[in-house]
Specification:
Blueprint lengths: L2 E4 L2 E4 L14 H10 L7 H17 L5 H7 L4 H7 L4 H9 L9
Antiparallel strand pairs: 1-2
Helix pairs in contact: 1-5, 2-5
Length: 105
């Protein structure tokens, strides 16, 4: 299993860089991952989505799809694409330290 050093901590990741153990995640790691994805700084609206993704993952065992995220997070799909231009569900999940949601390519 590959590892990555994020914010000075070694964490297990999959081949695409998604956390294998979401409980290892910290907000400092989120900021570093976001910079790597071209998102800097993380705004309060980004954090709203990131925390929502983590809450959904720990409640349901998977992160929400873009459609579900747009319907249930309180952030419209159009705004999600402005916040996470390379793919809202996939990039938000990566920054949130959770596995890639089902259905994301």
């Amino acid at each position: 299993m590959p590892t990555a050093t994020i914010a000075g901590t070694s964490v297990a990741v999959n081949d695409e860089g998604f956390f294998e153990a979401p409980e290892q995640w910290t907000e400092a790691m989120a900021e570093e991952i976001a910079r790597g994805e071209g998102i800097d700084p993380l705004t309060p609206r980004h954090w709203e989505v990131i925390h929502f993704m983590r809450k959904e993952y720990f409640a349901k065992g998977t992160g929400p799809s873009v459609r579900a995220l747009g319907k249930t997070s309180g952030v419209a799909i159009k705004e999600l694409y402005q916040l996470f231009p390379k793919g809202p569900a996939k990039i938000a999940a990566k920054i949130a330290g959770i596995p890639k949601p089902r259905g994301c390519i």
